[in-house]
Amino acid sequence: MKDLVEIIAKSLVDNPEEVHVNEIQGEQGLILELRVAPEDMGKVIGKQGRVAKAIRTVVKAAALNEDQKVVVEIIDVKS
């Protein structure tokens, strides 16, 4: 899942070297923290959150194949 999110995010942003994905095992399932440069936040989130929703939908579909629950959180590098 981590690689999937990383590949998608790197293809969207201007600074692919600033893309980092952290995996955290939570109580409910796997949490993927996607960190991007502040100037790339708009590209990853999209208008009205459409791109972020699409990323979450793709990851959720991939997670269903592996019987996992995965949550994607988008965070800028500065936080």
Automatic annotation (TrEMBL):
Keyword vocabulary terms for this entry: Cell shape, Cell wall biogenesis/degradation, Chaperone, Cytoplasm, RNA-binding
Location(s) in or outside the cell: Cytoplasm
Gene Ontology annotations of biological process type: cell wall organization; peptidoglycan biosynthetic process; regulation of cell shape
GO molecular function: RNA binding
Keyword hit for RNA-binding: yes
CDD domains per the UniProt record, alphabetical: KH-II_YlqC-like (cd22533)
A single cellular component GO annotation: cytoplasm
One Pfam family hit: KH_KhpA-B
SUPFAM superfamilies for the chain: Prokaryotic type KH domain (KH-domain type II)
Gene3D superfamilies: 3.30.300.20
Stated family: Belongs to the KhpA RNA-binding protein family.
Assembly with partners or alone: Forms a complex with KhpB.
Described function: A probable RNA chaperone. Forms a complex with KhpB which binds to cellular RNA and controls its expression. Plays a role in peptidoglycan (PG) homeostasis and cell length regulation.
Protein name in the entry: RNA-binding protein KhpA
Species, as recorded: Clostridium celatum DSM 1785
Recorded name of the encoding gene: khpA
